[in-house]
Fold each of these.
Amino acid sequence: MTTLTHRTRRTEVSKNSEKKVESEEDTNQERSLDNEDSGDSKDIRLTLMEEVLLLGLKDKEGYTSFWNDCISSGLRGGILIELAMRGRIYLEPPTLRKKRLLDRKVLLKSDSPTGDVLLDETLKHIKATEPTETVQTWIELLTGETWNPFKLQYQLRNVRERIAKNLVEKGILTTEKQNFLLFDMTTHPVTNVTEKQRLVKKLQDSVLERWVNDPQRMDRRTLALLVLAHSSDILENVFSSLTDDKYDVAMNRAKDLVEQDPEVEGTKHSATEMIWAVLAAFNKS
């Protein structure tokens, strides 16, 4: 869907026990999310969708490239990964008939609210859907790319604007109106440049100074963000400030990362299954 460019440019007791274990797992996953975020920002916690949009926005203009038709799907993929990381959804276990990531259905683990409107709206759709759907189908449904009129209800509307408003509330963006001859458009220029630079540096360092050459040893959220930046066709934005030599190294390493076989990597650690499933979905598109 996107390409990486080089610069030329049981009993009641057992049931209660199971619920307790599941509750503890959910709590641990939320704590893990906090720990992974704590090293990145002291005060501001961003969702994967917010990070993707922030990376895709032009700082002064406050909008994404008109030529980028990938970021909408990338944001929906980010929603699925974020829900999985928060312990709300997971992929059904592999079977003889359903070994591939793209054949396995997305299942509900917990319907407890996340506090994020887009995540909770998606969670309600997943809970209400029978039969269950695959990762690729969910990305298409949430984006509105379906020929089935009965499934248009699953489309998430005004996603960029809603995410942008979250970033405005967090003090990272502001809201302005710009006139484009034939129409007015709401834009969201970056006001907290430090936060965006922190995010950019985090990704640059992950493929340069902190490169581990093994996806399984990478921080999960950093791995997810690199995959989503690639799928949203915004990696160029992340690495454009680097010198030519570092740019080439960063792009080559990012290219090697996203060209890993999702089926192989997804079997190594269940915590990263959804990340690789989303990448597999975009590779197939």
Amino acid sequence: MSQKRPRSPSPTFSPLLYKSDLTEDRSSKFIAIYSPILSAQELRALPEFKNATHRIAAWRRPSTQRTLNSRPVLETGHDDDGEKYGGKTVEKVLMGMKVEGAVVVARWYGGVMLGPVRFDHIRNCASLAVRRWKESESERQAKKVKVETEEREKHDLVQVLYERDQSIMVLRGLLAEKTQPAPSSQSSGAIVGAKVPDYATLPLATLQKLEMVRDKTISWVLREIEKAEETQQKDLGATTPAKVPSDGSTPAEKSKAASFKDPREGR
């Protein structure tokens, strides 16, 4: 029969722990805690397990040994803590779920022998604790990817906004040349002489709104330039006198002359 180990001292730090639900069966209670960081001994010393009848442990960690391709060899082990074959059951959970770390399943004996079903409770509690860590890791990775994606988008938007500001400045200068006096500012956007904001300090949502505002500003300035050019063309047409041919005839006279047919032709 497996011998129970002496109690370990309480851990001096408390990293994230992943706990299963409490399972009860005929007055016996089972619960598991998994940690990718703490050792089995540290998990056993948690206050939650202080009065447990059994603290069944298993671990799976990289060892100092290496494979031929330099990968670390994983060292696995278990401790029944008086619950024969319980440690091996928990160890198989770690191996089957392909995770590193340690897990302890605590059992409080209720006075009734459960038989083989106790191994189902041990296995299910250990699996649930590990699964909750995996779910937490998936969420963490998803958040990390989101943050990295937003940072890239923010970096690109900052560059785009600086380029938009330069374009607006150039277009406003062109519009000022075509209109006298220069039109009053319409629509928000970069203005000549205005202080350029520090876009890098702004949140992504604000940058996205500013990009839309800058695009609208550019569209407005382009329309104003087009209107100014049309006005210039009309003014030019109204002030330019009709050209008189070198022979002194007017266009109407030229047209009339072109349509005149000499009666002598065809003779």
Amino acid sequence: MELTTFHSSCNGLRFRSPSLPFQAVPWNFIGLAQFPHSLSTCNRHKLVSTATSQSHNPSPKPLSTTCSVANDSSLNSTAKDAVVDPFLAVKKKAMDMSPELKGTSIFLVGMKNSMKTSLGKLLADALRYYYFDSDGLVEEAAGGESAAKSFKETDEKGFRESETEVLKQLSSMGRLVVCAGDGAVQSSTNLAFLRHGISIWIDIPLDMIARGMIEDQSGLSDSEIFASEAYSKVLTQLTNLYKEMRGGYAIADATISLQNVACQLGCDDLDAVTTENMTLEVLKEIEKLTRAKKLMEAAARPF
């Protein structure tokens, strides 16, 4: 499978789909968004980075060691000590729902962050799909990240046309997980392309995204990051961007919020929510959507 864009500034550049190491990988996600997300609500004082790289932890913790169990005197020691293997749960869910999905592509929208990227790759592996990052394809077509930034500044209309062309080609294919950039929700044309598949809003608290961005660049501790001028500046920029993009994100077929996942699992801090937890909830939501579509199609058939 390969993808070719046709904008005049990047004519002839060919994108090749990545080879997928179809191997066991862990995952999870779920929730509804509530604005503002400039500060997380489940734990404002104990925040830890959601992810510091685009790859998942090779040694994920099982749910029982990651999140605290809600107090319930009726729970016996056996239930409390039970360990749920997140990989097995994700693998089973993906296998169960795959026939109903029928190769329908998945588009992930939301603020750019490492959790969204890791989630997309894990989801693709579980479903045996191909993974693409639409922003990455646009940058590759322009000649790299710096060239893409310059292209956007000097010819924004042409840059937006490139984004549209990439989404057009991706939406014409099947069996894809696409991490879509903000350009995907900035025009009715691009939003229409997302309708060729299932769109999911991956909603991560802005303070966690800001902290992750600074942490990747500086290597400072959490306390140093929160006290830095750079953190306040980045958080303000993200908040303004979120306000601008939120309406487009909300058009997605479903929303998966890290905060809601943490609350649902009874986690004491947001960092305890793993990529495994998030992906499992994404799969559950996709399953609901495909079943609802199937019921609607059945109801529309003549007797």
Amino acid sequence: MDDIQIIYESRNYIVVNKDDLVPIDSFQAPAQVNISEQIRSLFYKRALNNYHDEQLVDKSENTMTDKLETDVLSETNEEKTQLELFEETSKEKAQLIRYVHRLDLGTSGCMCFAKSDVAAALAYKAFVEKRAIKYYLTLVHGHIHSPYPIFIDKAIGENAASYGRIMCTDDFEYCNMPKPAQTHVDILQRGTYDGKPATKCLVRILTGKRHQIRLHLAHIGHPVIGDYIYTHPIDYKPHRIMLHARSLTIHSDMEVVDALAPDPFKQKFDPLWKPEERCYPLNKW
């Protein structure tokens, strides 16, 4: 529970820096601890701690030495009843907390949760109306040489020839029901990862298709390092998929959520990544 890193919180929303190995819910990995349950448990424990702190303050302010034993027993029973009611209410409130967008199991970074049904509905509305902005950092195979940002406009659909929800671009023979998908790529740095050419990119998705970044980068010949689905041969050696949700901004009708997650793709965190050439002003990225 202490591993949860909160990077933004308000009355309505909370954004955490999701670990790449933690699923968002039980559907992604039924046997694993998931971030949704971790957040709900955190809020439940917070509420209980606040309740006990308030009770201690009340007791210290209302201490009486001449109370009868029957009065003390009555107050104790009343406190137990109040605590049980509070625990039940807190559990119900914690269950209302839900994520407002998804991240793949192997993707780390900004993950937003709403604290109420209304907050969740307004955040979802903002995503539908394109009022949510997401930027990702990624390390890809090979050196990308382009003097300008890259715009990828390639439809994505389900791979009908594969088991499970594996996606593909529309040039694949068995691509089922492809839908438009657009991705904007800025080249930040070129260098090496584990001794092989690699490029660090800043990616903004203009649409939200499943596995969109991974597919689009593979489509231009630079698959994400560690992607065990869309690399050929399978890239199983790296310890994770090198894809990180760096920032999230949601312009909801309730408030503006603005969160920035720490960059994990730095040499001090992963010595296998060795940047050699800066291609784009990093600024806050």
